[in-house]
Amino acid sequence: MKRKTMFLQLTKTKKVAIWERGGMSETTGAAIVVARADGSRKNSIAVNSIPNGRHALILVNQNDIIVTVKYIDYMYKISIYRIQTINVETRRASMLEIATFDNLKWDDEIVAQTYSQVVEQAKKLATTKYCVEPVYCKYIKN
User: Fold this and answer.
1) Which CATH number belongs to the domain containing residue 75 in this structure?
2) What is the pLDDT of residue 115?
3) For residue 136, is it within any domain?
4) CA 132, CA 126: separation in Å to the nearest integer?
5) The dihedral of CA 132, 137, 141, 142: what is its sign?
6) How far apart are the first and last CA of the chain?
7) Helix (H, G, I), strand (E, B) or coil at 91
8) Res. 142 pLDDT band, cuts 50 70 90
9) Distance separating alpha carbons of residues 79 and 106, to the nearest angstrom
């Protein structure tokens, strides 16, 4: 399991958040999706309609799940991370990779099954051409 650090957005009320973001251009796609520790959807506090960009700002907590997807040439590279620590001052989250999908297989099938719903939505986001809206979080359309 590897560790990763992710930059966090600081809100006006000094809370930390991550943007659900992503989409697909002509041949490649990427996505970042946020979920609760149990894999359920979180609420957004702001939404954007930037193609292949930031779609929903979501407050994060320790133990929340981050799913990243890269899609190239009909192949997926997927990582599932758990937020271990949050440093508000440096606006960084330290995350532990708990499962990966590469070379057409998961390295931990149990974790992949637990978070299958959020993973499928992250894959959808990464393969939606010029995506302009969130796919997993709860939000209100304007």
Assistant:
1) 2.60.40
2) 97
3) no
4) 12
5) negative
6) 40
7) coil
8) very low
9) 10
